[in-house]
Amino acid sequence: MDYRIIYRSFIHSHYLSEGIRITVGLTLPAIIGSYLNHEGIGITLSLGAACVIMVDNAGPVMHRKNAMLVCNAVIFISSLLTGFVVGTPWATGLLITVFCFVFSMIGVYGARAGSIGLAALFVMVLNLTLKAEGWAILLNATYILCGGIWYMLLSLSLYGFRPYKVTRQALGDCIQVTSDYLLWRTAFYGRNPDYDQIYSNLLDKQVEVHEKQDLVRELLFKSRNIVKESTNTGRVLLLIFLDIIDLFERVMSSHQDYKQLHQYFDHTDILEKFRSLLLEICEDLNETGIAVKSGKPYMMGEKLEQSLRQLIQDFEALRDQERTASNVEGFIGLRNVLNGLEDIVSRLQTIQQYSTYDLRVNKKNEREVNYERFVTHQDIDAKVLLDNFNWKSNTFRHALRVSLATTAGFIVSEFFPVGHGYWILLTIILIMKPAYSITKKRNTDRLLGTIAGAGIGVLVLYFTRDRHLIFGVMILFMIVAYSFMRTRYLVFVTFMTPYILILFYMLNPIHFRSLISDRILDTAIGSVIAWLANVLLAPAWAYKKFYENLQQTMEANKNYFRDVASSFVGRDVGITQYKLSRKHAYVALANISDALNQMLAEPKRKQKNATDLHQLVVLNYMMASHTATLAAIARDGTQFPVDPGYMPVVEAVISNLTLGEEILQSYQIGMGDNPKTGPVEKGIPVKTGIEEKKPVFMDMDVPVKTEMEEKKPAVMDMDIPAKTAMEEKKPAFMDMDVPVKTEMEKTKPAFGDRGIPVNTGIEETESMIGNRTVPDLSQEAPVRAGPKDHEAEESSTRQGIRHMNERVAEMVGLRKKELEKGILESETSRSLTLVKSVNDQFNFIYKISEELLKNAKRLTPNAPNS
Fold this sequence. Notes:
Order of helices and strands: HHHHHHHHHHHHHHHHHHHHHHHHHHHHH
CATH architecture of the largest domain: Up-down Bundle
Helix content: 55-70%
């Protein structure tokens, strides 16, 4: 681990910038108030700023501005109403119950709306200590409103001063996490790789990749001043993002049978050389990300290019020395890996050229962008809220849990001698989230962070007597805490606690010792109440929604495969339809991966069929991976076989996936929830887990997005390729892995817009099952034969696969004979690579669809057999 790189990455990140901005926004009103002998007013202004910070998440500036305006109005009303009822226990308890339910329910409108609700609850809890009457209540609410307006103006002013900074920093993070993902893939080329562990790490890392790419999409494609403008900076940011998505897709779409590669080449050092080059690419990609964040150009040195040329020479020397008829399959697979590395290096060079902001380079690479259909919008409709007022809605149950838990916390604080009872309520509202697993983790992090932070605070105050130095340490703790709030919740709480203790010490040093014990005790009480509510009050167990998510994933994969396969049977669906189906497939894959992680974090007794469900997740990733490989062949610009004879396989795959969906849907209905018609969470797309962390002040932790909103891929090639997690034993044809591409090009023509005849140089392959009319592959067309035609369909499928494989087997046999005769290059070798590549992908996808159907039936014993 290179700590210098970590340090450089951190100081140029938007996390540190945000941490500094939040610290300034919170401390400046308090400092000015103290200087003017109005310390109380200054702190109240900071409280208002703290509430607005909670909704100032990274995103389009218009969304941020609207959210902050609404938040200011909400916290003013919340402060006003709370001030009127404080002092009357029964009225206060009623207000807490109603507010917690209402402001938790508005989470159906998305993460920003949820953060506004959390801000309202936060200011309500802190105003429970208010001792004021009459006009003083209105004055207090006005100060809070002024503090919120102050922070809103500060945030928007800084954005106007450097409008591209956050986007640039987020884009750099996206490049760096892509480098991290590629780094994990290098383990495939090491000695004795642990495939299960590697795939598990890749699954987790891809969730992070999705999260980073989503943030950049939001910043780029919902900001009209970037998308619509003609400035060079805006174009550069767009082009870099589109190319990093292309690079990531190239990494994902060319999976190999690594076990087979080790069998062929472990007696040589060629795989270790491949791994060394991959490590160099990772390092260069990481440096590129840091350069993009800092706004400085970066170009790779000669070392990486020399390493690539040397690897090509080593591969060719090994091939000329050891290639025989028995190992030709291994060299085809290794050649495919090398092609992929050449492509990745080429794309990396292009991204680095963009980082120079050279107008000549950028003008040559301008792309027509049409993003409207790829951006989703959240409409504020009262019907959405009303539809979720039922027991099936996870948001409704969560709102009830929060309401009952906070009411219980208020009763405890009223009837038991606790010094700062409002800390109990703060702990509850900040820990409890709709998902059981997230609440559990935050509960643990909160408790451990509070204890560790209290210890740090005591040590600082014990060894430091100078008040100016103490104040400086507190500012440092604030910056560190807010810089890690999006990435490390435990670190955030650990540094948040000592700065709060130091703040209270500076305000009232006499009662500091009791303050520490109160802080730990109240946090512990709140944690226990939150834990009990999370376990006992209708928890949202992930397995209950897993089958619905799985069904949606299979449906998205089916549509994705259908649109890609259309090109190979002579019916291209076009670029927009293809990218839309790809977007939905990758969104569904992100959902199912998060749902699986949530389920595995729950109690063992609730992890129903966890092993089998994990297998289904892997199969879905395999399905999307091989579909992406087919798409890569189609959009490579090279010639590929177009033949209606692939149609029986296409129809069989669609039929298997459709039947699997129906089986899972019937099982979900049997569990008491209809995924198609149930009113569950109608306000937002079904998602399960990527957290969108929110800025916080003092105890205002981030509202976690547990129903992960549908990703917002935007234009052209911005979608994310599916994860290529493969089992150790792949369903292969003739145990051969084949390359997706035969040569690398710097600029890839778009799918459906290649601009060249698809069969130039390669005659259209004969139909494998006679002359067939190309059927309708539209997503509205029937996809599965009826029961009477089922046997005929199976026969047609077997015949299609047999003809498809016999043709390639004949070509493979001919190629082996050529090698035995010493013929190294021939027309057969060139045609075999492409035709076999397409055929193998159809073989893989068909077998995966069969496995998906078989696993779905095994999970649902009462499922029909056909």
